[in-house]
């Protein structure tokens, strides 16, 4: 199940990272770079939903795909956040919160899997809401202009990325609360 269509789509999110970063080094006007990076991010982020849908629809789910999918998401989000910090469109504190949480929860999930308690830190709705808000905030910040000559995506993106940081902390606390009883029970 290494090269199924859903898995290939997941790989595209990882391949997209240097492409999105590279756009900001192209010799063109900033609004055009912003637009290209935004469209690329949206297209590649959409593969997150599409690869899961296709895996279920085509009966091509696999343990490797289940592993790679969240890794690809985290790489895409973290790389985009670093670009936004570099462009002074996102606060470094927000990036540290989001990236730190991703590392901490990934490590927690790995540890919980090792002690046979991975179900206690399974994906919860708060994590999905956090991801959705991030996936809206990031393209707004990448675009950094007026959408339909009305919506200031920079301002909306700032609000959304901070809301995402709050949801990030909330989801981390939730997962830790679920994990602590399992950890205590198995480390005595």
UniProtKB/TrEMBL annotation:
Record membrane topology: Multi-pass membrane protein
GO biological process, one term: glycerophospholipid biosynthetic process
Keywords assigned: Lipid biosynthesis, Lipid metabolism, Membrane, Phospholipid biosynthesis, Phospholipid metabolism, Transferase, Transmembrane, Transmembrane helix
The keyword RNA-binding belongs to this UniProt entry's keyword annotation: no
Source superkingdom: Bacteria
EC number: 2.7.8.5
Protein location: Membrane
Pathway(s) of this molecule: Phospholipid metabolism; phosphatidylglycerol biosynthesis; phosphatidylglycerol from CDP-diacylglycerol: step 1/2
Protein's UniProt keywords contain Heme: no
Gene Ontology cellular component annotations, sorted alphabetically: membrane
InterPro entries linked to this entry: CDP-alcohol_PTase-I, CDP-OH_P_trans, CDP-OH_PTrfase_TM_dom, CDP_ALCOHOL_P_TRANSF_CS, Phosphatidylglycerol_P_synth
GO function terms (MF aspect): CDP-diacylglycerol-glycerol-3-phosphate 3-phosphatidyltransferase activity
Catalytic function, reaction form: a CDP-1,2-diacyl-sn-glycerol + sn-glycerol 3-phosphate = a 1,2-diacyl-sn-glycero-3-phospho-(1'-sn-glycero-3'-phosphate) + CMP + H(+)
Transmembrane stretches, start-end: 6-28, 35-54, 74-100, 121-143, 155-176
Principal localisation: membrane
UniProt family annotation: Belongs to the CDP-alcohol phosphatidyltransferase class-I family.
Protein name (database record): CDP-diacylglycerol--glycerol-3-phosphate 3-phosphatidyltransferase
Species this protein is from: Variovorax guangxiensis
Gene for this chain: pgsA
